């Protein structure tokens, strides 16, 4: 996690989710002078999962024309609710598979070292597995363990038929060769989608990866489920890491967006970002993207998870995104909050990849 910092943005009003009636009708929102398309969550026909929508059941159309509100005008893309819905869909599928075949999907997580944030993520993944009926296997190794010991655990899980997905929690301790370790995960169990063969296939036209990395997949799934068109749009991805930025850009391109990547050496990033219809930010800098950088009506997916000091919070800090939420919510047409945006989707996609893996291995559709 990035170190804690104060930011101007964090000192203004606290970000709040819009009430659902604002998503639905928009009559309760005050109106500005220009129109925009308002996006409603929907069970995407392109979704990898069957249609099952509880919180959307009352919403009949994909798009509703509406006016932009003067304050807190953007639609809040509610990743927490969408992730919950997806987990429910996955649980139904897992039960169906178990009843038909007796097979229960299994996910193995390898955690090396004692980083608090990593331990929290791993705990949350285990809870999520339990809730949907995935067996979870966990290996905790001390920070000073050898690379060989990590490789041994991977080999064991590669050979274990009750394990359908293997995740090595990142970051690894500095003395370890991340490339060597990630390469050891069998490609058919690479539910993180970090194996170079999966990433290579993602990058190539006409090739299909066995798994798509969870966080970028979660970003695209949110766009689909909110009926936000990607094809033909100008998209900017901020950040080019192997686990988020780069695969997010590849996925957007596969969805027929025209994609630009902004990174730490980009000149005049604001000018490039201002052109974008869709922005995915994965930087790790609290509140970096300001309202003035955004084209009115743009859609913003904020991947950043940044702790900022907050004496009023029980933990002494709270999490904010890369985007100055209070500012962009007034300019964008839709935005993901932090927390409650992309984070829960990452875990939902991990469960989904694990289920797909088990189905593929056992030829179950
Ligand atoms: N919600 C979720 O599920 C997840 C959230 N995260 C969060 O997303 C954020 C990014 O994670 P990750 O991709 O692993 O981070 P990395 O540190 O690996 O990558 C950050 C990227 O941002 C770029 N960058 C850094 N500073 C700037 C800047 N000022 N302007 C433009 N680009 C910049 C870097 O550029 P360069 O390449 O030039 O160095 C790099 O490409 C973090 O906050 C992390 O906690 C991560 C994974 C999952
Ligand atoms: N091999 C590997 N795969 C990963 O997918 C991976 C990883 N390593 N290392 C670390 C990052 C980070 N990551 C997150 C997952 C969920 C939330 C999440 O659920 N966040 C909640 C908030 C949680 C809280 O309050 O602490 C939210 O945004 O609402 C965040 C971050 C996965 N990562």
Automatic annotation (TrEMBL):
GO cellular component, one term: cytosol
GO molecular function annotation: methenyltetrahydrofolate cyclohydrolase activity; methylenetetrahydrofolate dehydrogenase (NADP+) activity
An individual GO BP term: photorespiration
Pfam families listed in its UniProt record: THF_DHG_CYH (PF00763), THF_DHG_CYH_C (PF02882)
Domain Tetrahydrofolate dehydrogenase/cyclohydrolase NAD(P)-binding stretches: 213-360
Keywords: Hydrolase, Multifunctional enzyme, NADP, One-carbon metabolism, Oxidoreductase, Photorespiration
Family: Belongs to the tetrahydrofolate dehydrogenase/cyclohydrolase family.
Assembly and binders: Homodimer.
Name recorded for this polypeptide: Bifunctional protein FolD 4, chloroplastic-like isoform X2
């Amino acid at each position: 996690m990035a170190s804690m910092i104060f930011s101007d943005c964090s000192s203004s009003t606290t970000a709040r989710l819009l009430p659902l009636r604002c998503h639905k009708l928009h009559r309760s929102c005050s109106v500005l002078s220009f129109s925009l398309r308002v996006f409603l969550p929907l069970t995407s026909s392109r979704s990898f999962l069957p249609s099952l929508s509880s919180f959307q059941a009352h919403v009949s159309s994909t798009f509703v024309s509406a006016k932009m509100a003067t304050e807190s005008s953007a639609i809040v893309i509610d990743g927490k609710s969408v992730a919950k819905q997806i987990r429910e869909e996955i649980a139904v599928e897992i039960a169906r598979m178990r009843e038909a075949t007796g097979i229960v999907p299994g996910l193995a997580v390898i955690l090396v070292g004692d980083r608090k944030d990593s331990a929290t993520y791993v705990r949350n993944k285990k809870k999520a597995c339990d809730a949907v009926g995935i067996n979870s296997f966990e290996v905790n190794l001390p920070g000073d363990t050898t690379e060989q010991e990590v490789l041994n655990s991977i080999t064991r899980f590669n050979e274990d038929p009750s394990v359908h997905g293997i995740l090595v929690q990142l970051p690894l301790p500095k003395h370890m060769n991340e490339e060597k370790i990630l390469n050891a995960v069998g490609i058919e169990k690479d539910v993180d989608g970090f194996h170079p063969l999966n990433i290579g296939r993602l990058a190539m036209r006409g090739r299909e990866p066995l798994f798509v990395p969870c966080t970028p997949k979660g970003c695209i799934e949110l766009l689909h489920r909110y009926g936000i068109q990607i094809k033909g749009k100008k998209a900017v991805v901020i950040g080019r890491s192997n686990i988020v930025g780069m695969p997010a850009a590849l996925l957007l391109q596969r969805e027929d967006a025209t994609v630009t990547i902004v990174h730490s050496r980009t000149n005049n990033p604001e000018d490039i970002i201002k052109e974008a219809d869709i922005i995915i930010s994965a930087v790790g800098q609290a509140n970096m993207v300001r309202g003035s950088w955004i084209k009115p009506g743009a859609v913003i997916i904020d991947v950043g998870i940044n702790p900022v000091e907050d004496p009023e919070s029980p933990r002494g800090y709270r999490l904010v995104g890369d985007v100055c939420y209070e500012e962009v919510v007034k300019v964008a047409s839709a935005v993901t909050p932090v927390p409650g945006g992309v984070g829960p989707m990452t875990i939902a996609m991990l469960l989904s990849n694990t289920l797909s893996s088990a189905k593929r291995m056992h030829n179950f559709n």
